[in-house]
Amino acid sequence: MSQSQSQSQSQSAVPEQDPSSARPTRRAFTLASVATAGLATLSACAESQRDDGGSGGSGDDGGGRDTFVFGGSADPDSLDPVFASDGETFRVTRQIFEGLVSTEPGTTELAPSLASKWEASDDGLSYTFTLQDGVTFSNGVPFDAAAVVANFERWYDLRGLAQGEDLAYYYRSIFRGFRTNDDPALGESLYAGSTANPDGTVTVNLTRPFAGFLASLTLPAFAMQETGAVEAGGGNGADGSDPRQSAYATSGPVGTGPFTFSAWERGQQVTLKRNDDYWGEKAKVATAVVRVIGDGTARRQALQNGDIDGYDLVAPADVETLESSDFQIQNRPAFNILYLGINQAYAPLGDLKVRQAIAHAIDKEALIGNALPEGTKPATQFMPDNVIGWNEDVTTYEYDVDKAKQLLSEAGQSGIDVPFNYPTGVSRPYMPNPETIYNAINQQLSAAGITTTPVAEQWTPNYLGTVQGTTQHGLHLLGWTGDYNDPDNFIGVFFGAATNEWGFNDPGLFEALADARTVTSESEQESTYQDINEQIMTLLPGIPIASPVPSLAFAPGVEGYTASPVQDEVWNTVSVSDS
């Protein structure tokens, strides 16, 4: 539902920061000094204190090494973040590209990036950004207001396959429409145009207020790219081809970040080189490598053998082993949701009683004890408990096998058999071992008389395309690591419109979520999203399972890696020694 453009959004400006005040931005941190996650700051005005880069470090001072090797769990899906929604892609693209807005290291608080400050209009329909001076893309093209406009217009003008739910996932979730919609499910775009102003600032206009707009710009999908290089490399899919496979997206990404693309050996590794012309704090290492190691045990062994310097998604059982051998363990603040998705378009999952039966059949405590990291707590709704609008009184479905059997009988569906999709060849922060989680849930469902047919599919390149891009699935395992601290980034992304993943159409819920996006009062946001969380858990489109606590592991000589609850981890501060 479109919101009236006359509806106002009031945001008060905050005083500009004193340039002499110390702010931790992207300078080096020791692993022991990581800040805990904070709440997102929606200040209408903020100013950058980012370091100017100094001499840029050769990487070999003081016994340091010039290469940082990180073990990733899967290949990137693409090197163009516009067409990605997975953390392994973003792990790489965050080093190459930057957005207008970023986050304070180790927190979810907003921080300047390519925009040094910003200001919102009183009605919430326009945002004016002051840009950093002297920034260039890695191919030498200046980054300026015209480049910002070109990026917004590029996203707005995507057509055909490039508009697909499994490609332009984030743009669809945030902006809700394109200049010309090829999908009838899309509506009016949030984006209403942008202007490169004579003073060098850029103004972005919206068709309706959106309280999470600034925070959404921290998404890697909205990083600034050199659109001339995109066009030259066929990166928009204008010929109808898949833009994820274009020359640009596989071998020619161009951004403003601290590293530049060097090589992508599919299934093996991505190699990045230090951007010696970087406008900010230059990387301490000359080369960064993301090596693809799909198996968690193999990642641990690679660290122990000195083949990699660090990795994400440490298996819970490996934490004590690594710590006892003097490896560093860093826990990323939990800011995610693991869920069991239910496609209501697949009979008989459209029956509420069947979905309720599935919910009652799952013992979350037992599942957590068997398959998830220590410290993980059961989830009652589709957002973590530190996001505004979390509802402590939401409807819950206690573990009760007899109740599950009764509901199936009432639905006339005793002994149902449904496909159960789960990914292979990947670990995710919310899902460290998908097969283990699948087996645990499958056994619980079986005890209630629900038979599942396993459908195991490689994460790359097929899994997300199946569960988000088609209707050919029943139950499925998936989850979400929050990108910024706003309820719309969780339940708005999941349930803001009809999708193939969930297979239902509820205009009332969609309208409630659309209206909630425009609410700017924190107290009103709290009550509004609490009501929506109750609405969702009554509808029961899926089963929220838990918010797992992900762990990273590093060799003793690694310093300067700051774990982020939203995975906004840029490696220019990382150094490696042989100690």
Your description of this structure?
25% of the residues lie in helices and 19% in strands. The chain is α+β, with helices and mostly antiparallel strands and 579 residues long. A seven-stranded mixed sheet has the order 9-10-11-2-12-20-13, sandwiched between helices. Strands 15-19-14-18-16-17 form a six-stranded mixed sheet. Helix 9 (352-361) packs antiparallel against helix 11 and helix 15 (507-516) runs antiparallel to helix 16. The longest helix has 18 residues, at 522-539. The protein is globular.
What are the main properties of this structure?
about 575 residues, alpha+beta, seven-stranded mixed sheet, 16 helices, about 25% helix, disordered N terminus
Mean model confidence by pLDDT = 88
Helix content: 25-40%
Q: Which outline best applies?
A: globular
What is the count of helical runs? 16
Biggest beta sheet attributes: 7 strands, mixed
Q: How much β-strand is present in the residues?
A: 15-25%
Structural class: alpha+beta
Count of extended strands: 22
Give the strand order, joined by hyphens, for the main sheet: 9-10-11-2-12-20-13
Task: Identify low-pLDDT runs.
Answer: 1-62
Cα Rg: 23 Å
Distance between the termini: 58 Å
Biased composition (Low complexity): 1-12
Domain Solute-binding protein family: 109-499
Keywords: Signal, Transport
Protein name: ABC transporter substrate-binding protein
